Amino acid sequence: MMHHAAVAPVAVNDAWRTWIAENLMLGGRPEGLVGILIQSGISEQEALAEVDAALRSPYLKGASRLHNRLAKRDWVLGIQSRLNRLAPAQVPRRERLSGDAFLAEHYRRNQPVIITGMLEDCVARAKWTLDYLRDHLGEREVEVQFGRDADPDYELNSQAHKRRMPFGEYVELVRASGRTNDFYMTANNDESNREALRELMADLPPLADYLNDERRGFFWFGPAGTLTPFHHDLTNNFMIQIAGRKRVRLIAPCDIPRLYNQRHCFTPVDGRAIDIQRFPMMANVPVIDCVLAPGEILFLPVGWWHFVEALDITITISTTHFRWDNDFYSDYPANHDF
Length: 338
Description:
By secondary structure, the chain is an alpha+beta fold. Helices cover 30% and strands 18% of the residues.
């Protein structure tokens, strides 16, 4: 006859208590939470006692006041979200937009725009071929993100994916690889690459209508298929498209309450296929799609969520040195767990 060892009941610890509190705040039914605790091996008596203690806790009542305040702010954000749905969801294209019009209609209003016609005489567009980059800068050591396919959180863990190699070797890898997201030279590699690729910046126009004279840019270069998952930046940003096309998906900042943003500036929502079963709050969130072509500049306003997919081998310069106030990161919350 088999004797089964008695399974010790699971004890309720502070991790469980935090879970109970958070789910009560989010509107979870007490009996539903008790059921999950029991399924997890906690005795019925203890499960009932813990949920009851949470419901009576003055600490939780204090936290509920803060939760109500958050609900009010989400309501205010929701006003803009609903108003946004009254107009077609698209990023306007404006040819040779003046600095004054850009400031008044886009920068100050936190509205994206694609600016065309400003890169007609840009030397880099014709000059930066794969052969040119290999032949003139091939010996330089650069840093690249590698091993992205094996890590679903490659962007969050970008520090762990850095690899150094000669630039010429990387150029040939991009040329030969076809579609892949496994490697990509991004702004995360900028500290190492700014010096290695410094003379390339002289091939870019100053864009003095919009930018100050810092002439500092981040060099993005990779094969077709590179992805940047949905996230938002902590500054206003220009994406200056030199080579290849990029598909960009945008979500307005006011939709943050429905973006499952629990860590820093990231969301688990996949821009390639938004899963409404897994993320039901995303059901009515407007997503604006555009394709950025070579010679175009996309203004990405601070706080706007964006997902980027390269449709070809692409080179993009991103830059943040606008003529107007662009320090939004100094007062960003220090604790990145939301």
